[in-house]
Amino acid sequence: LLLCMAELASALPFAGGAYGVARVTLGSFVGFLVACFDAYQSMFYAFFVVYVVSLVLELVIDTGHRYLPVWWVIIYSSYIVIHAWGGKTCWVVLKVLTAGSMGLLLIYIFGCIKFADFDKYAPMPALDNDIESVWFVGGAKLFFRALPFPCFFFVGNESLNLAAHDT
């Protein structure tokens, strides 16, 4: 895999994103299609986020399905206003939303721990009679210590063409 990446890196002296990789490796038309689908992906992601947020607001405030388009307009308008105010405002709003989401997630996790039945829903697999049964090889501490490293592979894969520009 690394040799394939190295071979691709020699053909990518630009920061073209996924469509640039497709253009170099598969041709101009395929690169164009990948760029179009990448744009569609971004648009559908935004549509989906607005739709889910409107469903949550509809459930919390109990307005009913017929007011969903009103929620869509309110959500899109607030997004546009936040982005129009500029970069610092966007980051502050993002930090507040992230902190609030993480707080709700932690409340949910710690509130549900007393109801968790690990013996029923997550039993430890029996390896051998001699070896202690554990969920993760090396235990949970080693698992969480090693968890970020597979993520770095994907970060490196995404920035492959940026690194190729410097070589």
Structure description:
This protein is mainly α. It has a domain at 123-147. It has 9 helices and no strands. The longest helix is centred in the first third of the chain and has 34 residues, at 28-61. The radius of gyration is 23 Å and the shape is flat. The two termini are 19 Å apart.
Low-confidence stretches: none
The number of distinct β-strands equals: 0
Kindly report how far apart the N and C termini lie. Answer: 19 Å
Determine the structural class based on helices, strands and strand pairing.
Answer: mainly alpha
Tally of alpha and pi helices: 9
* Overall form: flat
Q: What is the share of helical residues?
A: over 70%
Order of helices and strands: HHHHHHHHH
* Estimated radius of gyration: 23 Å
How much of the polypeptide forms β-strand, as a percent range? under 5%
Whole-number mean pLDDT: 78
Largest β-sheet summary: none
InterPro entries: AA/rel_permease1
Subcellular location: Membrane
Keywords: Membrane, Transmembrane, Transmembrane helix
GO molecular function, one term: transmembrane transporter activity
